[in-house]
Design a protein that fits this description.
This protein has 347 residues and is an alpha/beta fold. It is 44% helix and 12% strand. The protein has a six-stranded parallel beta sheet. Helix 1 packs parallel to helix 3 and helix 5 packs parallel to helix 6. The longest helix is centred in the N-terminal third of the chain and has 19 residues. The radius of gyration is 19 Å and the shape is globular. The relative contact order is 0.17. The mean pLDDT is 97. Bound molecules: S-adenosylmethionine (SAM) and FE2/S2 (inorganic) cluster (FES). The site of FE2/S2 (inorganic) cluster has 8 residues, from helix 14.
Length: 347
């Protein structure tokens, strides 16, 4: 067995086992990683050409009832300056984004009890009424099946909920005991059953993670086949229990992006802000490793710094138009074009 043979088998559409994934993660050389990137780009171009989809990210609240041990906006962080956008402010962000050419809005936030089903349904309906040609994506954490159903009914198209890790014991080390791996999985199954395009994903280099856990994540992607998959390096935040832990690396994240593209070719795969935080050209390198989505920030500049999941987050000072212009130039520099399109998954 060698890495190239395994990568070629993946590119030919064959499934690999969890132990094959483990072998790839343990033994790949920088040349193997480049080989994987070339295959991933070829596979992605067959489906999506040279298009890069954009999603306008609106960070609606950093108030969260959860206490995930890695996250800077966890309930236990008494130093975080909290904020919540009003429905009017959220609509104004979408308005501005529409004028800039965005056709997908991602409403992301902590698990803030203010955002009841009634409040969210009203916001979703108003965005869809004004912009029926746009997709609304939610990333608001764990909710009941009834709640997901109501939001879907109101017009939400997609839901991002990273599984965080496919290993229950590892999940237990990243989260407080009241957060359950089984509930995370229940949420993902419910979202799919309700007709959402569903996003899973995980951090690369999170505390206690080894290649054994990452191989499980890849096997999970192979089985669940999410429509989107958000992965980015773990980056420590100084006011969390993981303050002293090292960040995940650019190289590992890029290799995983290539593998995910090969495992599940149609997946919508973002080159994340976290990747752009660990390396100045992280997002460009992400696209060159197989990603096909970028998510410029549409949140009001006044709150940007407060949505601090990890330290040194980029894009906190730029207006929405600057952020989009910056990413457009970055994509052009590597021969890609950002497109004005909802950017649905192509099966
Ligand atoms: N509350 C929603 C949820 O749980 O899905 C959405 C917001 S949550 C902050 C979004 C994602 O940020 C998480 O799924 C996690 O993977 C990522 N994240 C949190 N803390 C991070 C850190 N320190 N480094 C990198 N990514 C982090
Ligand atoms: Fe936001 Fe560059 S993408 S400033």
């Amino acid at each position: 067995m060698n890495c190239r043979d395994l990568l070629l088998r993946l590119a030919a559409g064959q499934d690999l086992t969890e132990s094959d994934f483990r072998f790839l993660l343990d033994s790949r050389t920088p040349e193997d990683a480049r080989f994987a990137q070339d295959l991933a780009v070829r596979v992605r171009k067959e489906i999506y050409g040279g298009a890069v989809f954009v999603r306008g990210l609106i960070e609606i609240s950093n108030i969260c009832k959860n206490n995930c041990r890695y996250c800077g906006i966890r309930r236990g962080n008494g130093s975080a300056a909290r904020y919540r956008l009003t429905p009017e402010e959220i609509l104004a962000c979408a308005e501005e984004g529409y004028a800039l050419g965005f056709r997908t809005f991602v409403l992301q936030g902590g698990e803030d009890p203010f955002f009841t089903d009634a409040v969210l349904c009203d916001i979703i309906k108003r965005i869809k009424e004004r912009h029926p040609d746009c997709a609304v994506t939610l990333s608001l954490g764990e909710r009941s099946r009834e709640s997901y159903a109501a939001l879907r009914q109101a017009g939400a198209d997609r839901y991002l909920l990273r599984h965080e890790t496919a290993d229950p014991a590892h999940y237990g080390k990243l989260h407080p005991p009241e957060m359950r791996f089984e509930n995370r999985m229940r949420c993902l199954r419910d979202l799919r059953a309700l007709g959402y395009q569903v996003g899973a994903g995980f951090m690369v280099g999170s505390p206690f993670q080894t290649n054994a856990e990452l191989a499980k994540d890849l096997a999970f992607i192979r089985e669940f086949r999410p429509d989107m998959c958000g992965i980015g390096p773990f980056i420590p935040h100084k006011d969390t229990p993981f303050a002293g832990c090292p960040a995940g690396t650019l190289e590992d994240t890029l290799f995983l992006l290539s593998l995910i593209r090969l495992i599940h070719p149609p997946v919508l795969l973002p080159a994340t802000t976290a990747l752009g935080t660990v390396h100045p050209r992280g997002r460009e390198l992400g696209i060159l490793a197989g990603a096909n989505v970028v998510m410029p920030n549409l949140s009001p500049v006044s709150v940007r710094k407060k949505y601090e999941l990890y330290n040194n987050k980029i894009c906190t000072g730029e207006e929405s138009a600057e952020c989009k212009g910056c990413l457009e130039a970055r994509m052009r520099s590597i021969g890609y074009e950002i497109v004005t399109d909802r950017g649905d998954v192509r099966r």
